[in-house]
Specification:
heterodimer, A: 386 residues, alpha/beta, Rossmann fold, four-stranded parallel β-sheet, 13 helices, B: alpha/beta, Alpha-Beta Plaits, two-stranded antiparallel sheet
Chain lengths: 386, 319
């Protein structure tokens, strides 16, 4: 049998997630077993698109020796790219105008020139669309999904989630002690725009008083009842966990707009000024602030908001995430060895499977209404605000 | 004759918005016409919907009535860029797949989906602007072209302004001057008041926060001051915390503009979080969300420096 010696590239879209280096290690070791060569593209696709920025080269040769102690390490060896989109690359033209240009064709040519047969791309679920478009243009690509929120559909457990859950749980324990010392109700906001896994599971782990998640619209009167009940028994503090995407069951009414202001309204683009109150602004800290203020009114007890935000994406991976990362990395190489391209590696225990990108995009793994986690949380007396 | 030609055969342009009764975009009560397209990428931009040169989709999730009652957009989108998450009936947009084709817009009854920007002729714009001509006359107002960068659509802008003059309407523009000089030369003859930005002094800082250095901009500004001595220029700085809210910048701008008698004022526009929600509508991230507007004390101190330079009051107040 002829040995098919491939040269493959691995890159990263978006920021660091614990377990990322384990994925890279998994790719390198599994490829090495097949006699393939692996290079890393620095900063998303920037290593190829902006070679001038990298005097030492935009590609890094990734040998088994280089990744020897990498799996457990924090930090991004390949660098990160906030936007990993070759279809909209910001550049300055000859007339000094900033514009976003489509450099996808150029990127495919560059990969060809570098004799790179395929790319393994580690991206967040929402960035799968870009890989899908590249795959449609002929790029042999395998996606490895990363999500500390565990919100990638078709994957039961994303790498990074376990580390984030551990860190969040530890921080919630500390927040509870701080709340106890200061006799306040701590309202802690954690990541989770569409999916409340992190908020729900960490709240369960510390037996918080309430967990508010995007899947279960909340009524703070219910949460306040629960807190008051506990305060009556002599407890002087509380702990509420809020996912950043949690929403009230009844949306606040848009504020009445005075007639004079109406006449100032934009006449052509009604949406340009919108209806105040119906805006959905995703701002880190907003959920905690809203809930803390309202609970303070309702319970007549001091509250304070605390925002974990991006902090949970840092740090070294837990053993679970190391194993998962290595597995995802090795799985991506297996996909290529089986000529499965344009796919995302998915963990569906006990299998690692490959989901076509066309089926993977536009899907979010949320907490189903009949979830066992929700049942258990309720049994533990954790209010879900419903 | 040239003016007449322009108003009759002038091209169409991409207009973002026509805002009546503006009081901050030049003298008197004005109608501000926002043109689409900008060659800068200022991180604090309060009109992110004006940046892209072509019409662009926006989505206000708060207005969506959900797939159970509606859901037409899900079927209409040819790019599979509209989808649902299981926990919510309101649709979501995959901005990486959206091509701004706009097919979803007419099938959205609550107007949650809409396009920013539309093609208009000079006369269409001016007919709307002229509706408020009584206010312009009584207040000393008129038309102001803003953006985006209005000079980018130079032919259209020149057509609009020349046409406005023909209709007896005072003209002003808001510009950052980051365009080829030929564009400036085409438009400025038809402008009465030029409101223009001095965003940052140092070229490398200008590049960091706006995407390009300020070499071309400063060349254009200087040349404009010198070429059009009879026009009224007003220098402005959008005051951004930690970016350009320092005395050094204010004094550098004053040193730059003071030799020119046609620069009649220097205004500071304190940064506000106006653009915040619009970033969400366009599926973009607002990078300045953690900053608060400049304090009244800082504003007063910096404005006192300007007042002193223009001989309007006494010494600058101490911080």
């Amino acid at each position: 049998m002829m040995i098919d010696r491939k040269r493959i590239a691995v890159n990263l879209g978006g920021g660091y997630v614990p377990g990322l280096n384990a994925v890279i290690t998994g790719v390198v070791l599994a490829a090495n077993e097949l006699g393939w060569e692996v290079v890393g593209i620095r900063d998303g696709f920037d290593g190829l698109l902006f070679p001038g920025q990298y005097p030492e080269g935009g590609l890094i040769r990734l040998s088994p020796q280089i990744v020897e102690n990498l799996a457990s390490a924090a930090g991004a060896i390949l660098g990160t790219a906030a936007r990993n989109d070759p279809f909209h690359v910001r550049s300055v033209n000859a007339e000094n105008q900033v514009e976003e240009v489509d450099r996808s064709d150029e990127l495919l040519e560059m990969l060809k020139a570098e004799k790179i047969d395929a790319v393994i791309s580690i991206v967040e679920g929402r960035a799968l669309g870009i890989l899908y478009k590249l795959a449609r243009k002929g790029l042999k690509v395998v996606a490895v999904p990363k999500s500390v929120e565990n919100d990638v559909a078709a994957t039961m457990l994303s790498f990074g989630f376990n580390s984030a859950l551990s860190y969040t749980t530890e921080t919630l324990d500390r927040a509870r002690q701080a709340a106890q010392s200061t006799r306040k109700i701590a309202v802690v906001e954690v990541l989770g725009e569409h999916a409340g896994w992190l908020a729900l599971q960490s709240a369960m782990a510390v037996c918080a008083d309430a967990a508010l998640i995007p899947e279960v619209p909340y009524n703070l009167l219910k949460v306040a009842d629960k807190l008051r009940e506990k305060l009556k028994t002599g407890r002087t503090y509380g702990l509420v966990v809020v996912a950043e995407g949690a929403v009230p069951a009844v949306a606040p009414q848009p504020q009445a707009i005075p007639q004079t202001a109406r006449s100032l309204r934009a006449s052509l683009s009604p949406g340009a000024t919108g209806d105040e109150g119906s805006h959905v602004i995703h701002r880190s800290g907003q959920a905690a602030e809203t809930v803390a203020l309202e609970l303070q009114r309702l319970t007549n007890h001091e509250t304070y908001p605390l925002v974990l935000g991006q902090l949970v994406k840092g740090g070294a991976p837990t053993p679970v995430d190391r194993q998962l990362g290595l597995g995802y990395g090795a799985g991506a190489v297996r996909a290529l060895s089986e000529n499965r391209v344009g796919v995302m590696v998915a963990f569906q225990p006990p299998e690692l499977t490959f989901v076509p990108l066309a089926e993977a995009i536009n899907k979010v793994r949320t907490v189903p209404s009949g979830s066992l986690f929700l049942q258990v949380a309720r049994s533990l007396g954790i209010s879900l605000g419903d | 004759m040239e003016n007449q030609l322009m108003s009759t055969v002038a091209p169409t342009g991409r207009v973002l918005n026509i805002q009546h009764f503006s009081t901050h975009d030049g003298p008197g009560i004005r109608t501000t016409v926002f043109l689409k397209g900008c060659p800068l990428r200022c991180k604090w931009c309060s009109n992110p919907e004006s940046i892209h040169p072509k019409p662009e989709l926006a989505y206000n999730l708060g207005k969506c009535t959900g797939k159970d009652q509606c859901g037409f957009c899900l079927k209409e989108c040819p790019e599979s860029a509209i989808f649902n998450v299981d926990s919510d009936t309101k649709v979501r947009i995959n901005w990486d797949l959206c091509t701004n084709c706009g097919k979803c817009v007419p099938v959205c009854p609550p107007q949650a989906l809409y396009l920013f920007g539309q093609e208009m002729t000079v006369d269409e714009v001016l007919d709307e602007v002229e509706q408020d001509s009584t206010f312009y006359r009584e207040s000393g107002g008129g038309i102001t072209l803003s953006g985006g960068e209005c000079l980018i659509q130079a032919d259209f802008a020149a057509g609009l302004l020349a046409g406005a003059h023909q209709r007896g309407i005072n003209t002003a523009i808001e510009t950052a001057f980051n365009v080829p000089w030929s564009f400036v030369g085409k438009v400025l003859p038809h402008v009465d008041v030029v409101l223009h930005d001095h965003k940052l002094t140092l070229p490398e800082r200008h590049k960091k926060w706006t995407g390009v250095d300020n070499k071309l901009i400063l060349e254009n500004i200087k040349r404009a001051y010198e070429t059009f001595p009879d026009k009224t220029f007003v220098a402005r700085t959008p005051l951004i915390p930690g970016v350009n809210d320092d005395e050094e910048h204010i004094r550098a701008v004053l040193a730059f503009i003071k030799p020119y008698k046609n620069v009649v004022d220097y205004e500071l526009l304190p940064y506000m979080r106006f653009g915040e929600s619009k970033y969400g509508f366009l599926g973009r991230v607002y990078e300045m969300q953690d900053f608060n507007p400049p304090s009244p004390e800082l504003l007063a101190r910096l404005r006192a420096i300007i007042d002193e330079a223009f001989g309007r009051s006494g010494k600058p107040t101490q911080a």
